[in-house]
């Protein structure tokens, strides 16, 4: 799930808001999404509430945000 979504985010330049809450995403998905977030300059608002990210997943997303200055709401 997370890998396919991350792949789609890599080519989508018009999406600005994404709600991924309550999707039971885990660390592996968070790492894939983190890579996509780092490369996607159009995303402004992403909701990741109520997923199953552990420390590694949270760290992957946080590192991606360091590279994406356009994201304002997480």
TrEMBL record:
Organism: Aureococcus anophagefferens (Harmful bloom alga)
Protein name: Uncharacterized protein
SUPFAM superfamilies the UniProt entry points to: RNI-like
PANTHER family: F-BOX DOMAIN-CONTAINING PROTEIN-RELATED (PTHR24114:SF2), LEUCINE RICH REPEAT FAMILY PROTEIN (PTHR24114)
């Amino acid at each position: 799930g997370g890998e396919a979504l991350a792949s789609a985010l890599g080519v989508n330049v018009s999406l600005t808001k994404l709600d991924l809450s309550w999707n039971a995403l885990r660390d592996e998905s968070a790492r894939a999404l983190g890579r996509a977030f780092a490369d996607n300059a159009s995303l402004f608002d992403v909701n990741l509430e109520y997923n199953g990210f552990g420390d590694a997943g949270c760290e992957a997303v946080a590192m991606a945000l360091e590279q994406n200055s356009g994201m304002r709401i997480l």
